[in-house]
Design brief:
Blueprint: H1 3-17, H2 21-24, H3 31-34, H4 43-52, H5 54-77, H6 81-92, H7 98-116, H8 129-145, H9 149-166, H10 176-186, H11 193-202, H12 214-225, H13 232-253, H14 256-265, H15 276-296, H16 300-317, H17 324-339, H18 346-357
Helix pairs in contact: 1-5, 1-15, 7-8, 7-10, 7-17, 9-10, 10-13, 13-15, 13-17, 14-15, 15-16, 16-17
Length: 370
């Protein structure tokens, strides 16, 4: 990894991270889910007006500068090392629950989508409502029970990608892609029906003598994918990061009309007394910044915490926002708190640099010449 290039990218990302963090809050919902509709707004004119206002520039500048100084100060001073180390060790201890967390994160919203009659995203309905309902309920419950988990996740991924070809609006639910891939890699885990079946098939039981699947298919497949399970954090953070960038750029900065209508609908300028333009730009920049940070693996657990905060304010702040549509994002952010950035990340480079720069403790053994 090119260190100088990585640091440069990280610095530019971190400079934007807090730009709109105090402003995004409840405006960070999926705009398409709650917009009351609006007249078309010229994107360039809107952004020029918002970014040439002296007050807006002052707020954005102070936020960006504070973010950059905070990040650089942390990298230099590294405060609360012991607290952070204990926190990391604690959440890493939940790794055995990661498959269960991922299954809940996908299974629950899919069951809700099935009963509600939409295909992955509330803005997408297909011509056959019966198929959509059966698909969501069946795939969702199979994932919740953890039965045939890897196969179900693979079929779910193919279904999403196939739907995306015909309905680009499904990109609003892009987080299903990394979630399905991660589930296919880690399997059902425990507790799950797959774990119960594997225990029965692996032991000297009557079932083990008739099971046609476990030794012939499941075990060889697990052995093949096992080397790639270390990439699960990369899959999760890149996929979630792409979702955030899309939501921030496409749904807010490039769709200011609907975004401004949402600000007006919920009277968000009464919550934080700034212009609607600054609300929209702040929310869009925050989501895009969080997404970019996740993609490059910069302070991933902290970024996941920010994402978790944005989702929480969205769910409790917008009364008519479809909560089920956000559960998958909630779950992936929670999963990243457990896994951290993983390999191919700025966090991994920092960790390796610290390991090399920290001298090994002197040996306590006593050498004897006798």
């Amino acid at each position: 990894m090119n260190v100088s290039r990585t640091i440069g990218r990280a610095a530019s990302v971190l400079a934007v991270l807090i730009v709109g963090s105090s402003l995004a809050g409840r405006a960070s919902a999926h705009v398409r889910y709650v917009t009351p509709g609006s007249d078309p707004v010229a994107v360039v004119a809107f952004l020029v007006e918002a970014l040439t206002d002296p007050l807006n520039l002052a707020v954005l500048g102070v936020g960006g500068t504070a973010s950059l100084l905070a990040a650089l100060g942390y990298l230099r001073l590294r405060p609360l090392r012991r607290d952070i180390a204990v926190f990391r060790e604690t959440v890493r201890g939940y790794r055995d629950l990661l498959p269960w967390l991922l299954r809940l994160s996908v299974g629950l919203p899919l069951v809700g989508a099935g009963f509600s009659g939409y295909f992955f995203s509330p803005v997408v309905t297909l011509g056959s409502p019966t198929f959509v309902r059966l698909f969501g309920i069946t795939v969702g419950f199979l994932l919740l029970f953890g039965f045939g988990t890897r196969l179900v996740a693979f079929l779910g991924l193919l279904s999403y990608l196939g739907g995306l070809l015909f309905s680009p609006a499904l990109f609003l639910a892009f987080e299903y892609v990394p979630a399905f891939i991660a589930i296919a890699l880690v399997g059902g885990g425990r507790p799950s029906a797959d774990h119960v079946v594997s225990q029965l098939a692996d032991a000297e039981t009557a079932y083990s003598r008739i099971d046609p699947f476990y030794r012939a298919v499941a075990v060889p497949f697990v052995r093949r994918v096992e080397p790639y399970t270390a990439l699960v954090p990369v899959v999760l953070r890149v996929g979630l990061g792409v979702s955030f960038v899309y939501l921030g750029v496409a749904q807010k900065l490039m769709n200011p009309g609907d975004a401004t209508a949402v600000v007006a609908k919920y009277n968000l300028t009464a919550v934080v007394p700034v212009s609607p333009e600054l609300w929209v730009v702040g929310a869009g920049l925050t989501e895009a910044a969080v997404g970019t940070v996740l993609v490059f693996g910069v302070f991933v657990r902290a970024a996941s915490g920010v994402a978790f905060l944005l989702f929480t304010t969205t769910l409790f702040g917008l009364p008519d926002d479809p909560i089920l549509a956000h559960l998958s994002l909630f779950g992936l952010a929670s999963a990243l708190l457990v896994t951290g950035a993983g390999p191919l990340s700025f966090d991994a480079w920092i960790r390796e640099r610290d390991r090399r720069s920290t001298p090994e403790p002197p040996s306590t053994s006593v050498r004897s010449d006798d």
